[in-house]
Design brief:
The protein has about 250 residues and is an alpha+beta fold. The protein folds into 3 domains: about 10-75, Orthogonal Bundle (Arc Repressor Mutant, subunit A), CATH 1.10.10; about 85-130 and about 205-240, Alpha-Beta Plaits, CATH 3.30.70; about 135-205, YebC, transcriptional regulation domain (Alpha-Beta Plaits, 2-Layer Sandwich). The chain is built from 9 helices and 8 strands. It has helices at about 1-20, 25-40, 45-60, 65-75, 105-120, 150-160, 180-190, 210-225, 240-249, and strands at about 85-90, 95-105, 125, 135-145, 160-165, 170-175, 195-205, 230-235. The strands form 2 sheets. Strands 3-1-2-8 form a 4-stranded antiparallel sheet. Strands 5-6-4-7 form a 4-stranded antiparallel sheet, with helices on both faces. Helix 2 packs antiparallel against helix 3. The longest helix has 19 residues, at about 1-20. It is globular, with a radius of gyration of 18 Å. It starts with a helix and ends with a helix.
């Protein structure tokens, strides 16, 4: 899934740039607020909240912003009520797409999603129409360097519970069960191995390789979905060559 992995890496770098101008903070605040609302405000007792806070810290979100988002979720501070929705559909070339949403206005968001999909060569599906194509996994991206030995890295992550290690052009992709993600990160940190990102993701069981024309439209659709304020994550089952993704993205 080199295309999928490469896209994840590109998104991470883009997120870093967005964080510099505070663009991503509002999305992270929603993520934290909903996690606190659903599971309580103690990250030691709420793994979803712990993951949300850690991700916010990766983007250097100020501690005060994080605290306010938690308190809005627990009701200690007044705030907007968000609901979590997943939209499913198909993009150009028949690529399956899952869109993870947190919104305070379901009708507005539904209209926006329908417009974006339809205008850019896709269509929304019904609940369950593409979800079966994906499986929830933990994904850790580790940059390649002369100091990292692939075999040594494999042994470290396997001992920590990893299922697989994939070598891409400029990074390694570690795949694990969601519950083992924290163990993988701890193992890497103990060995002083830095990682680009560590996320819970939806990996496709099968992939589609769109042609150049569909790939161009597909990446435009992905960008527009991710730019939407209500969108938290976008997952798709495409496999596009690294060279083509770099050229188009």
């Amino acid at each position: 899934m080199s295309g999928h992995s490469k896209w994840s890496s590109i998104k991470h770098k883009k997120g870093r740039e967005d964080a510099k101008r505070g663009k991503i903070f509002s999305k992270m605040a929603r993520y934290i607020t909903v996690a606190a609302k659903e599971g309580g405000g103690d990250p030691n007792m709420n793994s979803a909240l712990a993951n949300a806070i850690e991700k916010a810290k990766e983007y250097n979100m100020p501690a005060d912003n994080i605290e306010r988002a938690v308190k809005k979720g627990t009701g200690e501070l007044a705030g907007v009520s968000y609901e979590h929705i997943t939209y499913e559909g198909y993009g150009p070339g028949g690529v399956a797409i899952l869109v993870d949403i947190m919104t305070d206005n379901r009708n507005r968001t539904a209209a926006d999603m329908r417009h974006i999909f339809t205008k850019h060569g896709g269509n929304l599906g019904t609940s369950g129409s593409v979800a079966w194509i994906f499986v929830k996994k933990g994904i850790v991206l580790v940059s390649k360097s002369e100091n990292i030995d692939e075999e040594g890295l494999l042994n470290i992550v396997l001992d920590a519970g990893a299922e697989d290690l994939k070598a891409e052009d400029d990074h390694f992709e570690v795949v694990c069960e969601p519950g083992d993600l924290s163990n993988i990160k701890a193992a890497l940190e103990s060995e002083k191995i830095a990682y680009q990102s560590a996320d819970i993701s939806m990996l496709p069981k099968e992939v589609i390789k769109p042609d150049a024309s569909d790939a161009r439209k597909l990446l435009k659709l992905m960008d527009l979905l991710e730019e939407h304020d209500d969108v938290q994550q976008v997952y798709a089952n495409f496999d596009i060559s690294d060279e083509l993704i770099e050229e188009l993205a």
